[in-house]
Amino acid sequence: MTEIQGSYDDLFTAVPEALAALLDAGDVGASVAVFVDGEPVVDVWGGFADADRTIPWQRDTIAGVWSVTKTMTALSALILADRGELDLDAPVARYWPEFAAEGKDGVLVRHLLSHTAGLPNWDGTVEELYDWPSATARLAELAPQWEPGTAAGYHSLTQGYLVGEVVRRITGRSVGEFFADEVAGPLGADFHMGLSAEHDHRVALAVPPPSRDEDYLASAPSPTAAAAAGTRIRLRDGNSVAWRRAQIPAASGFGNARSVALVQSVMACGGTVRGVRLLSQAGCDRAWEEQFSGEDRILGMPMRWGLGYGLFGSTYGWGGWGGSMVMIEPDARMAVSYVPNQMREPGNDNRGIEVVMSAYDGLTALRA
């Protein structure tokens, strides 16, 4: 069995065992964390940070978490809403006047957070994603594909720019800067949107599925959905220096399981972790407010969307391309995160769910 590093409560031994099993099955490297009441009951890692398996995964290794980044952007918006600086029921154009073009004056801030704004497609180039003013101006000029609020379609890349520009208009800071100053900094969380060069040596680059190479494309569940999503990202894009430096607040965050679980423990613990209060219980509860339930036009499957998070029974959270995941269980004040560098074959990746379920084994023992 693969050797697992780190620490864990004896009640949660199923979690490192689950990680070891995944690495034994061929995964390159990963980290897993479980926080309860804002403190780690599991903080483990194992395997390697590189595809050649020459660099061991270390405590401070970080990786791209892809769409788990959306939960960090959502938290930033919910903090502003809790402070009274952002009205979720206001038209986006109140904060971003240019956005009202092409009939978007009725798009509300909550529509951006719930993937119901009707702007799911990025039709620019990958390189244009790295230019914030150009990217946001392009989105401001688009017409919605449906009446905002009446349908949902996963805004895979666009959501981060839409929410992030609202954050920028209110605070005068990019969403990455706001997150660093107001969330990661106070919590001491090693999570970054817009990674500086000093951290490059710690990055575990994404490893394609065994049957693919670095031209592997981000995919949707159905060909129709994939076609509708516009420009698609290659694995080599996500592994590039340009991607790391850019702020793509729906997809380009870098961290490890510890930092992801620590940050999202804020939502699990009523807004306060380790004596740091970021928002109120009521502010956290907003994430639970169901905005849409039904077939997601882009994902091609039934979804329930809250404000910035997917809703799944008694939990909420989200996952990213490549397998990363965070799940929040407010009733248990628990957050679970899994961050790998190894991608699995399309349609064959239940690793995050397996890790979450192993955490519930420990939670059951804890409550006994």
From TrEMBL:
Gene Ontology MF terms in the entry: hydrolase activity
The entry's keywords: Hydrolase
Residue span(s) of domain Beta-lactamase-related: 28-354
EC code(s) of this entry: 3.-.-.-
Entries under SUPFAM superfamilies matching the protein: beta-lactamase/transpeptidase-like
InterPro entries: Beta-lactam-related (IPR001466), Beta-lactam/transpept-like (IPR012338), Beta-lactamase/esterase (IPR052907)
Domain of life: Bacteria
Enzyme class: hydrolase
Stored PANTHER family: BETA-LACTAMASE-RELATED, BETA-LACTAMASE-RELATED DOMAIN-CONTAINING PROTEIN
Protein name as it appears in the record: Serine hydrolase domain-containing protein
